[in-house]
Amino acid sequence: MTTNQTFRVGLPAPDFNMLSTKNMDTLEERVQLSDYRGKWLIFFFWPFDFTFVCPTEIIAFSEAVEDFADLDAEILGVSTDSVHTHRAWIRTPREQHGIGPINYTMASDFNKEVSRAYGVLDEETGAAHRGLFIIDPEGILRYQVVTDMNVGRSVQETLRILQALQAGGLCPANWRPGQKTLDAK
Question: Cα–Cα–Cα angle for 96, 154, 174, nearest 5°?
Fold first, then answer.
């Protein structure tokens, strides 16, 4: 994988403008980073639609969408597949290897510019690695993790990290909401 990473945690997240599944009939509605201003954004990439590990994550995030909403966060999922492929996958029942209806928007990085900007594009395969980014309400990248294509992410850990970021203190290892943060003195 080749990356020209020009962003990092603590700096503005790379902007994006992609076609999405917001309007499943036309597939012409776009999403951009500014659409999420004022909210936390859970922004994640997966390799390809109609695969094996990807639907487990997409469905798990969909099932937790209210937990994220309670924390003033929205979810946006992205792959390098087209919006037409996303729609077909959503419209395919789970028992037929689809994902069925989901509770957040999926975007298409068909030209691979966003995957490249976020440093997750595998240039050889054209697929995005499993990248997960948490962007704060001001558009600042606060967290990033990229895993191997074979390893799914933990939605519960993503929720914990979001809560830790929102806690406003120094959160030790294994910190959970309600626990004290560290005193830096």
Answer: 165
